[in-house]
Amino acid sequence: MAADLIILRDHLSGLLAGKLVSVQDKLEELTVVVKAADLLPVMAVLRDSDGLHFEQLIDLCGMDYSEYGDGAWDGKRFAIVYHLLSVTRNQRLRVRVFAEEDSFPVLPSVVDIWSCANWYEREAFDLFGIVFTGHPDLRRLLTDYGFVGNPFRKDFPLSGHVEMKYDPAQQRVVYQPVSIDPREVTPRIVRDELYGSVRG
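Above: the chain sequence. Below: its structure as tokens.
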């Protein structure tokens, strides 16, 4: 581990003692795991502490661990991973927090700490179904308002649940159950030897 990561890890351990579930060095970047109940106080310390100064939230992304490690994962299903940057100290930090409930994942919003989290949280809500309490305007961002389900969940069907099309009789867009006709596509190399020849 690089010297600056060792210093950062020791500083985090000192400031956030008892609030860090784990600290890992992966890909030359620290990843800390915190509990959902400790998320907001930890994020405020990461942003405001003199020794840290993680002023920027670069990104946050939803994660569905239900099939992680070929099904060997036995922890919580949904998590949010925050990517932080300290411009002052030229350091990055990854923070992971797991939602307590798999059936209805809920985490606190960090919009009041980093306002750019607004659209990132809306994206995670739309694609993973993770609800962010305290978010000022939590609604779908990438899918249509009538969309059913959360397309980045591992159990979401590849074909979806409904399809949208324009109905000329009603002169509007309508939703209907997905109608995909099963078909078999046989590659040319598998076809019989007489393919293309005239048969008598």
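The CA atoms of residues 47 and 55 lie 5 Å apart.
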